[in-house]
Request: fold
Amino acid sequence: MPTPISHAAVGFAIAAWTQQRLPTRRVCIVAAACAALPDIDAIGWPLHVSSASLFSHRAITHSLTFAFVGAAVATIVFFRGNQWTQGRARIALTLGLALVSHACLDALSTYSVGVEFFAPFSQQRFRFPWTPLGPPSGGVLGQLAQEAVVILLPAVLVGWLGIKVRRRSVPSRAAAGD
Ligand SMILES: [Zn+2]
Reply:
């Protein structure tokens, strides 16, 4: 399954492209953390949580409900303000997308169980019809190589490109008097 680093890279790429201007470092870091957060359910393994439980792997923490609530809470905690301004709402949306990206990436894999997108309302587990993150033949190294090619490198590239494009657009806007 995708490692936290790959998930975080996707969160960073989302932050790089979804803010109106050059995203702040804080937005990038919190979005990356949000994208990795759903695997916090791994603490259920040593506790032998039943696979039918809402707190089992790829259940509630991988749901759309968790993404919605998590994005709101993370925005309130890390981006303080008295009102829901447009900028803050956009940050919440970015964090929500970062959280949802985690479940979507997991649903592209054939490891482990499917994803409970609609928990706690439905415990049906989903996997996308296309699973490029299937079990690689080369063991752990093969898995990491596959993941680097399919997720990590493209995500880092897309994020870096986003930052570069935004950075370039800042002086031109300033010159235009914006
Ligand atoms: Zn996961």
Observations:
- The longest helix spans residues 139-175.
- The CA atoms of residues 138 and 145 lie 9 Å apart.
- Residues 38-39, 58, 62, 102, 106 surround zinc ion (CB under 6 Å).
